[in-house]
């Protein structure tokens, strides 16, 4: 939740910040891309830290590092400085997922992991729900710079609480065995590339809605900042429901006796198809557009819960942190390129081609996943070692 309040602060304030620093759509796209480049750069180091030293230390370091970067954004004086601070922030925010997936893989049996992932991932949507009204209130009352300091302080409080309350399961072999699965072995597996390519195409879609929705509502739909703060939380709220629903659906299918492969194909193809509603957004009225956006974010988080669940299906616990990191590198690369493309298209054409891409990419990523990853691998125990 805190992770996404931090992320959303810039996007919610984008109309103000862009005017203050005189940023075009392309320049704002560069700021978003800087954050994604930081995410991509930090994924493997953070995944290695979680696998090697565990999540108690790893998540404490990650949250403190990104909270410092969030606070630093209150003092920037140019778009370039903002981009650099966002890069810094991205290098550690990626640890939220490699650490979270590691904790889930250790504490939950296979059939409960997707629901656990859905619940943990729904915290990100809660953050996205809270960010618009909270950030707009802070900016309106105290100035936009104060809106960065409050979430930074939340991260510090959380890190202290995590350090003193979290304890790793009594399974030291999990931590010690991480060196038994080298990175070269992970990269030699087809299923590693399958999940990486899936996240490459799936990841940028919800990121587009996170980082560009306030700007779209402000410039294309002519909504005021107060209207954006009052209404833009609704799609994210439904997205949180989607994440939990995706986990619940997977758990229900598992209980009915469905195989891992059957669970993932049913949940991911159906939700990817719903993401096609993005096609309608630029062509309908504001209320219908809000409904379509809400459906897409709901479906995307339904899909994401099962995409992350695939990581625990396809990899042993000792490699989950680095496997998540590899998928994060893929997502970071597309997350770096897609904002640049978005800024270019919006400045020169309109939002229409961007919404079209956002509609098709989840389905493309899902198709690639199930073409490259073998059915047999999904149905093997995630506790098994990776094949040589």
Automatic annotation (TrEMBL):
Top-level taxonomic group: Bacteria
Membrane-spanning ranges: 57-76, 115-139, 146-164, 190-212, 233-251, 271-298, 319-341, 353-373
Location relative to the cell: Membrane
Keyword Membrane applies: yes
Cellular compartments per GO CC: membrane
InterPro entries reported for this sequence: MFS (IPR011701), MFS_dom (IPR020846), MFS_Na/Anion_cotransporter (IPR050382), MFS_trans_sf (IPR036259)
Chain segments annotated as coiled-coil in the UniProt record: none
SUPFAM superfamilies per the UniProt record, alphabetical: MFS general substrate transporter
GO molecular function, one term: hexuronate transmembrane transporter activity
Membrane topology, from the record: Multi-pass membrane protein
Protein name: Hexuronate transporter
